[in-house]
Amino acid sequence: YLRSKKEETIHQMIIDEEIIELMKEPEVKPNNEELKIPIISNYEALVALNQIIIYTE
Fold first, then answer.
1. What residues does 10 pair with on adjacent strands?
2. What domain count does the chain have?
C-alpha cells in the first residue's frame, strides 16, 4: 500500500512481467578470477544434496 498526501490508500499490484524481470540473473558475467564458488551441474548438486540427506538420517 502506498499513501498519498491526501491519505488515500492506493493499491499497487506488481505484474507478472515485473516479477520475472526481478528474478532474472544479472547479465554481467563474473570474471573467472573473481569467481570463488565453483560452478557445478544440477546433477552434482543433487548428488551433494542426497549425500547430506543420507548423512543427517
1. 2
2. 1
